Amino acid sequence: MKTSQLTIAVCSLLFVFTAAVGQAQPSDTSLTANPVYANNCAKCHGKSAEGRRLRGPSLISAKVAAASEDQLRNIITNGKGHMPKYKGKLTSDEIDTLVQQTKALNKK
Length: 108
What we know:
By secondary structure, the chain is mainly α.
């Protein structure tokens, strides 16, 4: 009876460990490595986020660095100028991640 309880306990711990590892953030958490950025933003802002001539501006700039997280979140969510809105296309978590990664990109 004790062996079966030990087996159940070990299996439970392995299950919890596997679930925790599966939810861990990827090791490269940069904006340009984010698949959401690659699929939705890079076509205008460039693969390296340095902008594309006559398309989207660089996301590595004093203007972006000076913008608050709320301002960036609002621009991504509702669009601005030629930038389309991503409300309904991206989840709020995806938008929050893009905001955090954009801010981090400007701190380097």
